[in-house]
Design goal:
Strand order of the largest sheet: 1-3-2
Structural class: alpha+beta
Number of strands: 3
Low-confidence stretches: none
Strand content: 15-25%
Number of helices: 4
Helix content: 40-55%
Mean pLDDT: 80
Length: about 80
């Protein structure tokens, strides 16, 4: 039987030139602030089954997020 226990993991994105460009332009950054959150949502939806995870937060300054997932799901996000 598969272990259904979940833990909280932090996921940090690799260098993204578009993200860095926006961060450098403070006015544009404030206008597009929701963009990193949407990017994180799309990534999770693409890699994990619906209702199998719970995103806890998005971290805009470091382009990352926290997500509650099983140990088995960690491998999908790490590749």
């Amino acid at each position: 039987m598969e272990d259904q226990r979940t833990d909280l993991y932090f996921v940090f994105s690799s260098f993204d030139p578009n993200y860095e460009r926006l961060r450098a332009d403070r006015k544009e950054w404030r206008r597009l602030m929701p963009t990193p959150c949407k990017k994180h949502d799309r990534l999770l939806a693409k890699l994990l089954q619906p209702n199998s995870y719970e995103k806890k937060s998005s971290l805009a300054i470091v382009d990352g997020f926290s997500v509650e997932i099983s140990k088995e799901q960690v491998y999908f996000l790490g590749s």
